[in-house]
């Protein structure tokens, strides 16, 4: 079992990111779960490089991988290829993260449109993370991400020879599960996880700090929000994320992906 969820790679927030429990992993080898330090950067490219090493090893051992997760871009890169991007110096990365925190995504999107209209036109003005990525790469290399994407290498997996399934539950069923999910997480140790995460004093722009529930639980710990409000707001954020995720799956994963409603089997 191989993880394809961008939040489950971190070595913290096991409960809050719904990583498999120790009991779930008994008897079945699991890979790429919790292997990245909480403050680390872990891109789609980094995941793909880890996947390349892992897939070669599993093939040599005669084992068939099952790749599971909700980060659609990981699957797209796996089956369609991903261009190699040059490294970005830490000072450039820090500069644009700080700019995002101070100026906001919309202002940075305007800057991106001015220097790289191709990527500016592709990205939503609210997509701060990808806008920053486009800006920092342009400054570091003088080239647009679009240029690198046009140089895609062959994919790691031949999609024609893989069983491809996307799980699309009915919306009422999904929402009912989401509404129960966050309260269960609080009872299972999510509060303690966020306390431990905050104690690391990470950059607020670090990817792990954007996990759904972190800012809500942090607000509860500081006395700014009640437990009931935390559950309501985090559940609403999860529903919004699920909506975006389902829209992405429907639009980006073509008819070769089998649609599965878990209620119908």
TrEMBL record:
Recorded name of the encoding gene:
miaA
The biological processes this protein is annotated with in GO are:
tRNA modification
Native organism is Martelella mediterranea DSM 17316
Q: Does the keyword Glycoprotein apply?
A: no
Which reactions does this protein catalyse?
adenosine(37) in tRNA + dimethylallyl diphosphate = N(6)-dimethylallyladenosine(37) in tRNA + diphosphate
Q: Tell me where on the tree of life, at the top rank, the source sits.
A: Bacteria
Provide the E.C. number(s) assigned to this enzyme: 2.5.1.75
Provide the family line.
Belongs to the IPP transferase family.
What is the protein name for this chain? tRNA dimethylallyltransferase
| Subunit-level organization | Monomer.
Q: Which SUPFAM superfamilies match?
A: P-loop containing nucleoside triphosphate hydrolases
Q: What is the lineage of its organism?
A: Bacteria, Pseudomonadati, Pseudomonadota, Alphaproteobacteria, Hyphomicrobiales
- Keyword flag Transferase: yes
The record's NCBIfam families line, in alphabetical order, gives: miaA
């Amino acid at each position: 079992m191989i993880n394809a969820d961008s939040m489950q790679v971190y070595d913290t927030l096991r409960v809050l990111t719904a990583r498999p429990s120790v009991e779930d992993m008994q008897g079945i080898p699991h890979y790429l779960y919790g292997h990245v330090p909480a403050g680390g950067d872990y891109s789609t490219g980094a995941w793909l490089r880890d996947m390349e090493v892992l897939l070669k090893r599993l093939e040599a051992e005669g084992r068939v991988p099952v790749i599971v997760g909700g980060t659609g871009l990981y699957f797209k890169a796996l089956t369609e290829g991903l261009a190699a991007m040059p490294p970005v110096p830490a000072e450039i990365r820090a500069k644009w993260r700080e700019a995002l925190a101070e100026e906001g995504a919309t202002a940075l999107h305007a800057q991106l449109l001015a220097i790289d209209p191709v990527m500016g036109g592709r990205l939503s003005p609210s997509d701060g993370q990808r806008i920053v990525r486009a800006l920092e790469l342009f400054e570091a290399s003088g080239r647009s991400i679009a240029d690198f994407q046009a140089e895609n290498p062959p994919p790691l997996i031949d999609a024609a020879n893989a069983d491809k399934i996307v799980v699309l539950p009915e919306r009422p069923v999904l929402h009912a599960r989401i509404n129960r999910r966050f309260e269960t997480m609080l009872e299972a140790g999510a509060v303690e996880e966020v306390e431990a995460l905050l104690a690391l004093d990470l950059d607020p722009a670090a990817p792990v700090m954007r996990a759904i529930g972190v800012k809500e639980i942090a607000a509860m710990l500081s006395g700014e929000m009640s437990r009931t409000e935390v559950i309501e707001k985090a559940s609403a954020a999860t529903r919004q994320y699920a909506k975006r995720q389902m829209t992405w799956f429907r639009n980006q994963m073509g008819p070769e992906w089998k649609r599965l409603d878990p209620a119908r089997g």
